Amino acid sequence: MKLPAHWLIQSCKTRWNSVCQTFERLLEQRWAVTAVLSDHTATKLQDARVLELKDEYWQLMEDVAPVLGALKCATTIMSAEKEVSISNTYPITFSLINSH
Questions:
Q1: Cβ contact 68:20 at 8 Å
Q2: Buried-state track 24-51, b at ≥16 Cβ within 10 A, e below 16
Q3: Total domains, the chain
Q4: Which long-range contacts (CB under 8 A, 24 or more apart) does 17-21 make?
Q5: In angstroms, what CA-CA distances link 4 with 10, 29, 93?
Q6: Domain containing 75: what range?
Q7: InterPro entries in the record, alphabetically (predicted)?
Q8: How confident is the model at residue 11 (pLDDT cuts 50, 70, 90)?
Q9: How confident is the model at residue 68 (pLDDT cuts 50, 70, 90)?
Q10: Helix (H, G, I), strand (E, B), or coil: what is residue 84?
Q11: 33: which of 1, 11, 16, 87 is 20 to 30 A away, CA to CA?
Q12: What pLDDT sits at residue 99?
């Protein structure tokens, strides 16, 4: 499939940025995930039914991932320890509002 050989990322409820990483990785590996779930030699039918994602869920991830990515970037910048971050508040807020 010519996809990067990456592991899937599991989200962690105490770190909201992990949802962004989970969505990004699932979208990157969508066709590999779908192929594994549809291969009954690799995945039991019962497991595949539970794990399979509907097209509407894939679409939701595609729609939400850019927003979460922008928030993740803003969070990373505002969490800096060695730089003055209050001066970044307006540019970050302005760019988030105008990009979505």
A1: yes
A2: bbbeebbeebeeebeeeeebeeeebeee
A3: 1
A4: 17/68, 17/72, 17/75, 19/68, 20/65, 20/68, 20/69, 20/71, 20/72
A5: 17, 8, 33
A6: 17-99
A7: RNaseH-like_sf
A8: very high
A9: very high
A10: coil
A11: 16
A12: 64
82 in a domain, yes or no?
yes
Contacts of 21 (CB under 8 A, 6+ apart): 9, 11
**What average pLDDT is seen over the chain?**
88
pTM over cut 0.85 = no
- Is 26 a member of any domain? yes
User: Any idea what DSSP says for residue 88?
Assistant: G
Average pLDDT on 85-89 reads 72
| In the predicted structure, residue 89 carries a pLDDT above the cut 80 | no
* Percentages (nearest 5) of helix, strand, coil residues in the chain: 65, 0, 30
* % pLDDT > 90, the chain: 61
